[in-house]
Model the fold of this input.
Amino acid sequence: MFDATAAPPRQLARPAYCEVVVEIARPELARVFTYRVPDGLDVRIGSRVRAPFGSRSVEGYVLGLRDSTDLPPERVKPVGSLLDDTPALLPELIGLARWMERQYACLPVESLRLLIPAQMREGRVNIRSETVARLSDALLDPDALAATVSGLRSRRANRQAEALESIARSESGFVPRGELQPSAVASLRLGGLVTLEKRERLRAPRVDPIEPTADPPLTPDQSRALAALRDALDSGGGSFLLWGVTGSGKTEVFIRLAREALSRGLGVITLVPEIALTPQMTSWFHARFGKRAAVLHSRLSAGERYDEWRRIRRGDARVIIGARSAIFAPVERLGVVIVDEEHENSYVSERHPCYDARDAARERCRAANAVLVLASATPSLPDFARALRGQFHLLEMPRRVNGRPLPAVELVDMRQEIAKGNFSVLSAPLAQALAETIRDGKQAMLLMNRRGYSTFVSCRACGYVERCDQCDVSMTYHQADGSLRCHYCGASRVPPTRCPACGSGYIKYFGAGTQKVEAAVRELLPSTTVLRMDSDTSRGKDAYIGLLRAFREGEARVMIGTQMIAKGLDFPNVTLVGVIAADAMLHLPDYRSPERTFQLVTQAAGRAGRADSPGRVIVQTYDPGHYSVAAARAQDYRAFYEREIDARRLGLYPPFTRMTRILYEGADPDAVRSACETDHAAMLSFLRDNQPLRRQVVHMNARPAPIERIKGQTRWQLFLKLYARGPTAALLERLRELVAGRSGSDPRASLQIDPPNLL
Ligand code: ADP
Ligand code: ZN
Ligand code: ZN
Done:
């Protein structure tokens, strides 16, 4: 499947045996199997092979080569075939996979799988090929070619002569048959002068071209940051936390750093949250880096994704931008990894193996002596703590480009609104500001962190709440189609008019979502075009892109959305940002709620006034005195950090502890419970004889997960809160063993360490 032209010359003597991890996720197969390398098969480390296994034939990954084996020769079977012409796995990525295997307690095959596009397994890629014409071997000699061409011309076979010349001129040595004159090609082929072959054609994802702009002169903050990063590039790497306020020009620093790396022959990976990979971002990235750029995101088709991966593997693309899994891009000689908006939850995979792309990036950079840059206006608390302890070099960019002021943030106390008799989701000051913004021809964004209309439906008489049958959660009312929907599995049903429990007619709708905000804005400004962007309206790639374009082009004046709109979007005409319920998440049972609130409000505020008009930010809250709201208002990360780190120290939360759990999921509730309780018992006996390890555990329990059922799957968790300092590693090791022992079996078990959500 790979073209051999990209293959480097062989250096090893032909090995007699190879060690293969087979593509079957079962704990008892979690080791390498030895196969014989048949004559003529160019098997290397990182090759994917097809090999006999028992009575069937399976795919496998070659992780080692050997000259001899202790096994009796008759027991060693030969590899069947190679799946690709060039090894699919880079040796350094095999190293990363082995690290993940330990870190996240997964099977070797589960971490190796992450390294290649899913479509490559089981040959699911739809490879598009084209027929190309090459010169026959005899014509590779220039004199022979010249003689043949003049011979053809003398016979007036000019089209054949032209075809030969155009193939000879082509850089690649071949020309697609479709670009040549058909009868000329047919004659040349009959005469043995050209050969035809099928060749894979790469799909380039469609990008809207934009003109590259000239580089702006850097601000002093940018120059300082770049200088430090460049030094690290030249001296064997380093880890940095780039803490720059919104609008400080972090992106420009990334671009200059990427150019420095390219000019040294080094590759670059930039991770951004999936949601920030807008078409605008993609075009702009291509404009700056041209053909050396590759973009990996989930809106690519399977084929496009595979082709981008191939361009990277071949070394054609050297600057990669992508979401979480782009950390596994097969970039050789890696120089820089940038993680933008590093505080985002989306860098942690929710599926086993639950890897954290930031940790994988750190490990990859360590092994490659590359520079790691984590960047944010609101760094995650643990990472800022690490920076203060010296584990990251802290780079600060405290000023906005051109000295534009940070927008003023006004708080509105919603309790006073209610006291004044305003029960709308829009406070009087926000409603007035909206009207003024529209009157001035500007745009506004309103942020509401929940979708739907009402968040739950309940009986006033008996307290009954309408819940999903498959998931242990309440259902949300959606006004558009008048249905109740489950946000975990998508189930929908008609809302009851009488209470199913007590028969009462007092059914009430509680809480507010984006749809309710939309209704309120339409009522306030009936002639204004309003867009709503949440996962209900932007399902599918085109819907999302279409909504963004409509807003950018001013077709809509107000955009209402969930956190989807809070990050990274740069709309110059937006002068008002409203945060509808800043503290909606403040009272969720999660120790990170204050941090999330602070991040959300700060990032949302960063959307306003990015161009020349000053911005205005209105934050509605029921708890204006809360420190996270107050610190976000002052845009004072340090103040928030100091306060929050104290709270974490007192409450024994990360980074002082590690919130660790094994999550068990399966269809059979008894099996799930029993798996969890069995492992709990195993941990208890492990700790019984080990006093130092026991002291490491703040507490441990085996219970149903906070959401006990999702999509019909029962969920239990073995939860441990561990002190971060001390012999935590030995405990995690024991947990890893328990999880690894259950790999690939039912119920599923996954190990999560400080996961983004503990529901
Ligand atoms: P951040 O990511 O830090 O929030 P951006 O990278 O989006 O900030 O930069 C904010 C704006 O400033 C962008 O429109 C960008 O093009 C512009 N910008 C960045 N650096 C410079 C510079 N040195 N001179 C002028 N404009 C700049
Ligand atoms: Zn009732
Ligand atoms: Zn459900």
